[in-house]
């Protein structure tokens, strides 16, 4: 493994993730890898597969050149100027809540919905 390349990719992924205000768990879920695996990638402990690199580019709104250290942020970004910024509902605490809710059984999700509706009426 090319340790320098792994470190470069990890640092660029971390910078893009924090710029988007995402957690490691958010990105891991979006690119379909375990949170621990994504954390190791950010720390430069592994190189992503080509498929994972492509998913990272898409989810972090960066070019492969930026992740590979060939371009700085802004010059190689895949995000178009016409693309709107992430919505306010995409806050980290909302994403964490959604991850937790997805793991609940249906009866508990229904109960949580009732509680949320009651809180919304206050």
TrEMBL record:
Where does the record place the region Disordered? 71-93
GO molecular function ontology, one term from the record? DNA-binding transcription factor activity
Q: Where is the HTH cro/C1-type domain?
A: 14-67
Q: Where are the transmembrane segments?
A: none
Q: CDD domains from the xrefs? A: HTH_XRE
The record's listing under SMART domains reads: HTH_XRE (SM00530)
Write down a Pfam family by its short name: HTH_3
Q: What is this protein called?
A: Helix-turn-helix transcriptional regulator
InterPro entries, sorted = Cro/C1-type_HTH, Lambda_DNA-bd_dom_sf, TransReg_Diox_bact_type
Q: What keywords are assigned to this protein?
A: DNA-binding
Q: Which PANTHER family match?
A: HTH-TYPE TRANSCRIPTIONAL REGULATOR, METHYLPHOSPHONATE SYNTHASE
Provide one Gene Ontology cellular component.
cytosol
Task: Name the PROSITE patterns on file.
Answer: HTH_CROC1
